[in-house]
């Protein structure tokens, strides 16, 4: 039609080749959301599992994601350095990831919270963004940033809610007590006043969750026939995803493994 | 932490002020999706209503959308020219809209398709994009483009499926028969061979759906107190949204009304 | 060659259609430059004429510029709203304008400053940027912004240098005296202490310079033959450019004329 | 002033950190320009030297350029991977480079072509663009791309103009003769028919020109005092720039040296 010229107003948002593309999704207003659905404080196991399930859904349904990391109401996904998914268009990548995440979160919710059904006026939603990291160092530092954030918030929240729930402090008093305290101080409060050894807290709460393919070998075929596509889909559905809660800030071996794998995938993959 | 520098790798994607921002969402692989869930051909009333419900969810939960238009597996949303939502950041706008749309689609599905529950391995997802239109003419032409697309596809699909379903043609033969035909020819086939007057087909199928606030007067308050926010939320929840299936290509009055309203909202709204 | 893939790392930077594209150039380190070449303070007539000549060079050698405004060490150029020069690529537009400006500045310098030749270690250079303005209001406000800037700086500089040159104040004392003064105060100082009526200062110093085609009718031909191109070039070379020093903040008539002209050019021009 | 809001229409165009930024400038319409000023064909020694002088001007006047490569009417400049010049703003970088290049080209012209002065209606101008290369491999491949381009064009042009100038062929016949020929064929024509060994042609014509600091040790001081700045300027003015015409496609040692140097500069430089 004569109106088609308006398509030209769309801008070309392809991301730079050979950089790691990270898509981060983050829950919108989860402060409210966690109240509305009575999440346990500071960590609700079911809610975190629901995030992990949603992330698994992204890994299985959006090709070329080789690593994911989640904590609190957020999840980050990294694509193979050489992915050509959607020709690396930023909008396509970030919208597909966040839509897939949202869909799987809601689906997982119905399984994990059978007695706490979602209110249609208060549904979980997420924003997303795409960021490029040009080298391994900045990529590692990105994940270290998110894991350090997890640690800092979790130590704070654990101490805060212990003071409130076990120490009978008002939220206001707990907050005041924690102003200016360092990590060591918070560990001390937990240990001395409440007999809690922070080190023994669940790893998932302290470190967040890392999702990794058991084997990153189910590559998307180039110009697949219907049969190849079905086979690919089946292989992805059956492939195992491991959930880890390890330290990614200091663990050299972890990164060596992950990146060696990425490298192999990158050089052998005919990404479409 | 010392890793925070990686935040600087995020780019600033604020859209140009005083342009109309359009976010279009489109179902991913709905060709397959409509088969999987047995949509009626060429139009499934429930499926279209599900789209409309999802779009209503966006209008109620993402502020400053003043008009939306949907057809097939897509929906377009326009923001007030002067919106300052998310400081006009493209990623935030497009991801929030598509996530909200997805969540509401799945929720509406459970209401509209009680006997056709979603398979967790085959969930509905959408992509999205943000496009700027700098003036009223290009904005109108954008909507005309989408509505013309609706018309062309629907006339084709209606004729094609009539040939197949009522005319007993194979899909291949139906396709062959339609090659090179103009609109008039398709109208003729429908009328002469099957007694179908295309003009009498449902308006929603022919024109798509337009969503408009009955009154665009529930503006988001500036720096709202909790009370103001609750009041605002309630007013939005109660506000009426009209669904129209009118012609937006030729209807001057429609645009006069819509844009006069937009103008008023724009000048009176303290958009946050 | 097998290295050609690196061309794909270039990004597509086409600017939004139907917006006014403004390219602003600004002298790099002209504080130093004006000292090095002994510019008169606060305004050096020759230096300003040199800027105007350079701007004229841009108008004659870069097609589709319909208006320019300069003051101090800067010049702004606006393209026809519908220009398709370089497919509206931002890099091409801003680099071509600044390179043409620089070349013409240096050429004009050799004519205007025969006794003050340029030192090869200290050449005049400029930066540039491209900004889109989506409507007439923002475009007018852009020019008003630059002209208001001219006025404020010129009134300040005129008063400052009068205090130093005629009032024998040290620069430091002159600066101190002017802290906190309003426009009216500065007018007063000039008039009472030095008998200078600021209104009688040269218009070019007070208002800056506006460049406008006498007739905007030498449109670039579409896919020109060599003969058409030569004819076009000749017509541009012979066309007259008017230099005005009028008020563009309040003058409605000026804008009516300019924009009517732009409109005609836009609708009749087969921009390449 | 109340018009200052228009400044917000400028977009933030900072380039991704830790990537190599390449600025390429290219002569506008140098096909015409070389005719107008009677360049020797296919290579005019003076014209190429003028390009080299202009490039040297860029290296001395724009900080953090560590390598440049030129051929024909183009030059490419690479910045230190960690440069923070202009906060890495693309517009500032590309406009400053192209303006500095233009200024120095015109200045060098007056020295190199005393008998062929520039016509004010036909001045040399250049466009420019900024491209990011995220790793060493793509950076090397970029330079290989430009040098391969130099080789291919120069072998073609040398053969073509030999056929015309020494072989008395018309341009049309020379062109026809060369259609479909490979490199070996052109070498053969030159050698057999004209006794020209292409290998003995001047290195600058065959390989282009590489500019490198003799020592990359004159780093821009952080927040310099006037004295430090003067000292820095003097050190840059006195520093030596080497011109090489070596093979950069295969020469591993060249890149090892250049990049080792870059690395040192990057880690020790307090880039402003
Ligand atoms: N009680 C509880 N709250 C949680 C849990 N996980 C996340 N949250 C809450 C704590 C924070 O208030 C919120 C996440 O912080 P954000 O900075 O993302 O803020 P929020 O989502 O409210 O706003 P946003 O839309 O992201 O700007 O989610 C949980 O397991 N239990
Ligand atoms: N049977 C049926 N199909 C529908 C209905 N609405 C949409 N569809 C199907 C028809 C098209 O194959 C598809 C929409 O076309 P698209 O161009 O968006 O393609 P698709 O979503 O398959 O791929 P995409 O991921 O958007 O590139 O959705 C409906 O009401 N009934
Ligand atoms: N004496 C004298 N100075 C002038 C004249 N025109 C411009 N200038 C000087 C005054 C200012 O110091 C300078 C322009 O100010 P800018 O804000 O553009 O600063 P400058 O160019 O030094 O730095 P920049 O590289 O633009 O950030 O040029 C003139 O006619 N006479
Ligand atoms: N005779 C002669 N011509 C040269 C020499 N160096 C460059 N040229 C000419 C040959 C080409 O026609 C032209 C460079 O080709 P380009 O692809 O850059 O085209 P041109 O600058 O004409 O157009 P453009 O504005 O860059 O699109 O410059 C030289 O040393 N001698
Ligand atoms: O949302 P925050 O406060 O955790 O920080 P951010 O996500 O970087 O901020 P924004 O969502 O505004 O980009
Ligand atoms: O998806 P299509 O084919 O309807 O057309 P498009 O949406 O403009 O294409 P893309 O999704 O690739 O931008
Ligand atoms: O250069 P200034 O200070 O007049 O202001 P600006 O040009 O807007 O700043 P920048 O050159 O850094 O964009
Ligand atoms: O100018 P060309 O033809 O050598 O090729 P290019 O420079 O890549 O093309 P453009 O200048 O249009 O970007
Ligand atoms: Mg956030
Ligand atoms: Mg959140
Ligand atoms: Mg969060
Ligand atoms: Mg699409
Ligand atoms: Mg679709
Ligand atoms: Mg569609
Ligand atoms: Mg500036
Ligand atoms: Mg300046
Ligand atoms: Mg200035
Ligand atoms: Mg070019
Ligand atoms: Mg050229
Ligand atoms: Mg060239």
Topology:
The structure is a homotetramer of 272-residue chains.
Chain A: E1 20-27, H1 30-36, H2 45-61, E2 65-71, E3 74-79, H3 90-112, E4 126-133, H4 136-165, H5 171-178, H6 183-194, H7 203-207, E5 209-213, H8 226-238, E6 241-244, H9 252-268
Antiparallel strand pairs in A: 1-3, 1-4, 2-3, 2-5, 5-6
Helix pairs in contact in A: 2-3, 4-5, 4-6
Bound molecules: 2'-deoxyguanosine-5'-triphosphate (4 copies), triphosphate (4 copies) and magnesium ion (12 copies).
Can you give keywords for this protein?
homotetramer, 272 residues, alpha+beta, six-stranded antiparallel beta sheet, 9 helices, 6 strands, globular, binds 2'-deoxyguanosine-5'-triphosphate, binds triphosphate, binds magnesium ion
What this model shows, in words?
The structure is a homotetramer of 272-residue chains. Chain A has 272 residues and is of the alpha+beta class. Helix content of chain A is 49%, strand content 14%. Chain A is built from nine helices and six strands. Chain A has a six-stranded antiparallel β-sheet, sandwiched between helices. The radius of gyration of chain A is 21 Å and the shape is globular. The mean pLDDT of chain A is 94. At the A-B interface, helix 3, strand 4 and helix 4 of A face helix 3, strand 4 and helix 4 of B. Bound molecules: 2'-deoxyguanosine-5'-triphosphate (DGT) (4 copies), triphosphate (3PO) (4 copies) and magnesium ion (MG) (12 copies). The site of one magnesium ion has 4 residues of chain C, from loops.
